[in-house]
Specification:
Radius of gyration: 15 Å
Largest sheet: 4 strands, parallel
Shape: globular
Distance between the termini: 21 Å
Oligomer: single chain
Length: 169
C-alpha cells in the first residue's frame, strides 16, 4: 500500500518494486488503498459501507500481511494514509488489522528518509494489535534512487528484498 496519491510518487514506485520481487512462500499485490476512500466518518461506517472502505477491509482481511510504503508530510504520514488506517481500524476490537503482519518502509527526498512517518506507523500498528515485521526501513534521497519511470536502484531493491524475506520467515 503506497501512502502517496501523486501519480509519479516514490512510494508507489517502491511498493511496485516490492511486488516485483520474488521470495519463497510470498506473493504480493499492489493496492492503491488510499485514493478512493471517503474521509472517515462514523456515520458512514455501517451497512452498507462506502465501496472503497469495504474493498479496503476485504483486501486487508484476505491478506496475510501488509507492506506500507509512506512518504513523510510535515513530520507525519500523509492524511490519505491516516484516513486508510482509520477505516481499517474499525470496528474497535474486531477490525481487519488485528494480528496482521505489517512492514513499514519510509522514503523522502530529504536526509531522514521518512523517519517520523515510519516511527508514527511503527508506534500505531502495535496499538491496533498488528504485528510489526522487520526493521525500520528508511530510504533518504529517494529522488536519486528512483527514476521518473519508477526504476528503483539495486541497493534499494536489495533492502526491500531483505524485508520481504523477513516477512516470509
Amino acid at each position: 500500500i503506497p501512502g502517496s496519491l501523486r501519480a509519479g510518487s516514490f512510494s508507489a514506485a517502491l511498493a511496485r518494486a516490492i511486488c516485483a520481487e520474488t521470495v519463497d512462500r510470498v506473493s504480493t499485490e499492489y493496492f492503491d488503498a488510499v485514493r478512493d476512500l471517503p474521509i472517515y466518518d462514523q456515520d458512514l461506517d455501517g451497512d452498507p459501507l462506502p465501496p472503497a472502505a469495504a474493498r479496503l477491509r476485504e483486501r486487508i482481511t484476505a491478506a496475510d500481511g501488509l507492506f506500507i510504503v509512506t512518504p513523510e508530510y510535515n513530520y507525519n504520514i500523509p492524511g490519505g494514509l491516516k484516513n486508510a488506517v482509520d477505516w481499517a481500524s474499525r470496528p474497535f476490537a474486531a477490525h481487519c488489522l488485528l494480528d496482521k503482519k505489517v512492514a513499514v518502509v519510509g522514503c523522502s527526498p530529504g536526509t531522514r528518509g521518512g523517519k517520523a512517518s515510519v516511527e508514527y506507523l511503527r508506534s500505531v500498528v502495535p496499538q491496533l494489535k498488528g504485528q510489526l515485521v522487520g526493521p525500520e526501513v528508511l530510504i533518504p534521497a529517494v529522488n536519486t534512487l528512483v527514476d521518473c519511470n519508477g526504476v528503483v536502484d539495486e541497493s534499494v531493491r536489495r533492502r526491500l528484498r531483505d524485508v520481504l524475506a523477513e516477512f516470509a520467515r
